[in-house]
Amino acid sequence: MKLGKYWGYILLIIVVFAVPVVVRNDYYLHILVLCAINIMLTASLRSIATSGQISLGHAGFMCIGAYASAIMSMKFGVPVYASMLLGGVTALVVAAIISYPITRVKTVYFVMLTMFLGTVVTLVVTQWRSLTGGTTGIINIPPLGTISIFGLSIDFSSKMPNLYFAIILMLIILLFLYRIDRSYIGSTLQAISQDDTLVASIGINLVKYKIIMFCIGCFIAGLVGGFYAHYMSVIVPNSFSLFYSIYLLVYMIVGGTNRFAGAILGAFILTLVPEVSRVFLEYQPFIFVLVLYLVIFLLPGGLVSLPKYILSRIKK
Amino acid sequence: MLETRKLTKNFKGLHAVTDLDLSIDVGEIVGLIGPNGAGKTTVFNLITGFLKPTKGEVIFDGEDITGKKPHVIAKRGVVRTFQLDRIFLDFSVIQNVVTASHLYAGVGFLEAVFDTSHYKEKNKGAWDHAMKILEFVKLENKKNEIARNLSHGHQKLLAIAVGLAANPKILLLDEPLGGMNPAEVDSTLKIIGEIRNRGTAILLIEHNMKAVMSTCDRLIVLNFGEEIARGTPEEMQQNNDVIHAYLGVGKYAA
Questions:
Q1: For the segment A128-167, what is each residue's pLDDT rounded down to a tens digit?
Q2: Which of A2, A175, A180, A184 to mutate to test the interface with B (most CBs of B within 10 A)?
Q3: Whole-prediction pTM
Q4: Best CA proximity match to A175, nearest among A47, A89, A311
Q5: CATH of B86-167, one of 3.40.50.300, 3.30.230.10, 3.40.50.10260, 3.40.190.10
Q6: Rounded to a whole number, what is the distance in Å from the CA of B158 to chain A's nearest CA?
Q7: Is the reported ipTM for this assembly greater than 0.85?
Q8: Which residues from chain A sit within 8 angstroms of residue B99, using beta carbons?
Q9: Mean pLDDT, chain B, as a whole number?
């Protein structure tokens, strides 16, 4: 394996692992965890979108995973790591069931149907008080279980271990999604979004591909939801509202859908900036709309295409 | 090899295709001709599963494929191209063909994700297969061009290449010569002939009469969804019904 060409990535990973140690402030550690969470969610959303399926219900699947994991670990004594995985599986099952009808419809209707789905999920969670605690949600969710490796025992009651866990989870998920994107699966999905009739005429089962990608993406959302529940120790249905789904789409579009790194960039910047700037936070919805307009009209490739754009302007 | 029996399609009162019996064997180039609106593309859609017939059957290699999904039929070996040519405009020329040839390679999902050596091997196989096809249609020096930037004639050629990459036993070409200049028509006809020589049967819809008469072994003539005549090109040129409906009399005769 030629390690030479990967030195850029290796450097990046070293920096990423070093940051939590440098940043001592609990508040900033928390923001970085949120960044990691949003990066995973946006990347999985983008992967689903490569086949032309724009999901407005991603936060709904995160919600399913969060509540499933919380309930399983608290009411059924499932160990937290297992319940987190099962949270992802629950989201996957829901995605698999719903995918049969919805992957066959036109993009516009797919967007609407996923939006309804996400809303229905939060409604169910709000109404089913006996199971989910309704609008007041679930509190005292147990944190991730203590791990003992190399004689050290790592407990997750403080922010730092949680951040490292989030980073490692994020890197694994990103690698997985990246590999899919770069393989024939990713290019077939892109082909489907360009011309699904042509794809059918050469023997590719496009519905199968769309369903598989949708289910994988929603599984990741559920898994991340599970982590979120055990990290925050409190979850309420409001955290997984339609707004969150919309924000994820904004992160994806502003970052740039054409390149894999776009989702990462968009999620990172747009999660960090509102938390760091009070002004931004106050006017967040307006600023988001403005940024969205600027990107769509001036830089359709998203922030990730900025270097290329600048270079082409300089050459002129 | 491919047979249709009493193939019929009605759209709420419009009889698009009525009782069509068609058959094609290995090594044949059969032309499906007729005036515009005669139902030729509808026949293609019915054979390849893009439309379900109202009545009748489509039999391929002994198997009833009537009304099956398009991708299932394509996987069996019945591949079609489109009249308004369809290609992946944002992909490069070679990427276009590779998309179809991965089917030929047959790779698994997990292997692709983990980039196993088996996957690398199959992937290379698919790209090599795509290159061979590009060389066959003489588009190999444009392999990295974005399909959108190709000339019209080259785009139509690419559409044929994409269809070929799916390893068809029979190729249904819908007006492959549309909008081509005479030089392009000649080279494309040579390629079509060569495809037949290598063992793929061809069903051709074309309006270019010179091309049809010189390339096809047999013709089936359609008008208003019904077959009005069938036979060799020479026979068709003498047939009065065909001349009246399609070939034309006097100044504009083919």
A1: 888 877 888 888 888 887 777 777 777 778 888 889 899 9
A2: A184
A3: 0.89
A4: A47
A5: 3.40.50.300
A6: 13
A7: yes
A8: 187-188, 191, 199, 202, 204
A9: 86
